[in-house]
Amino acid sequence: MNLIKRFWWMGLLLVFSVPVLADNVDYQTIAAASQKPNDLSRQAMVMIMGQVAVDPFAPSQPTLIGSLFAIINGVLAVMALFWFLTITLKTIVKAGHQGQFFAGGRSALYPIMTFAGFIMILPTQSGWSLAQLVMVWACSTMGVGSANLLTDKAVDMMDSGYSMVTQPTAPSTRSAARGIFEMNLCKYAINRELESLYADGEANTPLITTKGGNGQYDTGNGSAVCGSAKTPNTGRTGTWNLLFDSDVDTSGVITAQHQALDTMQSTLDQAAQAFVDTYLSKRDQDTGSFQDAETQIQNAAAAYENTVNLALNKIDFKDTLQSQLSSQIKSSGWVALGSWYHTFATANNKTNDVASSTPVVTGMSNLGEHGTGDLYNQVFAAYKSQVQNSTYTAPLGTQTAKDDGAAATA
Questions:
Q1: How many CB atoms lie within 10 A of CB 248?
Q2: In whole angstroms, how far apart are CA 48 and each of 42, 66, 141, 168?
Q3: ∠ CA(49), CA(151), CA(53), 5° rounding?
Q4: How far is CA 301 from CA 181, 188, 307, 409, in A?
Q5: Percent helix, strand, coil in the chain (nearest 5)?
Q6: What is the CA radius of gyration of the chain?
Q7: So where does this one cross the membrane (predicted)?
Q8: How far apart (Å, rounded) are the C-alpha atoms in residues 24 and 184?
Q9: Cα-flanking dihedrals φ and ψ of residue 216, to 5°?
Q10: Per-residue pLDDT tens for 350-364?
């Protein structure tokens, strides 16, 4: 039974080790990460313990700590030898009386393991025992190497634009995501009602559709409007800016904004459709369960900002601005010396202007042909009720907005 348990735990360990193997992490990788010459933790261990911290099992010269451990380990070895001989003699005498050598559940491995334990506390040439050298190896190689691998991975992720903590989303981004969700909620609620009226032959109002793409969407049927969403146009028109503006390529950020809005529209469109279908299923058949709309809205807003932030991280305008400054000052004369500061200031401002531009969203218009609107009112009331009772927890430092619902009290 114990053997089966051991195999079960071994299989479970292998299952959890699969992601590590997929990431090409092995002993050589960990050992290489621990051998950085400028690693401060490794330098501190060498300063205290000597070269035994670099290669614990290689012969090395005795140090102060090694000499002290040699005395301590020698005393422990003498005491262990006395204990070992005493227990051995006692066991032999007891075995002679009982007629069996291995009693009390002990096996043939017991004396071997006892002897191995005694060997582990014997001092080596450097003064350290084998048990202590194993601990030094675990700290200097496996411990330092594993910590360095984790640190390197975290630094690489931050270089790619990721953050070590979940960044709070801006209230304007969350409001835009909420508006897009409600725009699609309007579309599907009105369409489900119109489809029901079509089945009874009582409606000729066209269905609500979403048209557009690449950062601009309009939802309506040519008469009624459920809303629109687009990324704003950003520009700089000042006279001084026209003369000395920085030629910073923000097209990548603008493209990322368009892609982020496309993703947000697609995600929230599916969420709104599922919400309306679930409402009808609950109302008519008392089946199904709602997904938390507040969580979906907040996640969509966070995904939008993450996409834009990753694009911002790829902008490297310092090298290009240096050559721009040289030609600008030479062509415009000494009066253009002030552009040295202004160029970098406008570069930052231009980038910030683009990055801080959140989608512009308009809501539903009560004008036009959109059916009776009864189902829309019911669905919207259910949506508002769910938002007020949402269990979503916003990241620490989130600035709440008036329309955040339950997130405002999280």
A1: 21
A2: 10, 10, 16, 44
A3: 15
A4: 11, 21, 10, 19
A5: 65, 5, 30
A6: 35
A7: 64-89, 101-122, 128-150
A8: 44
A9: -150, 125
A10: 445 555 567 889 888
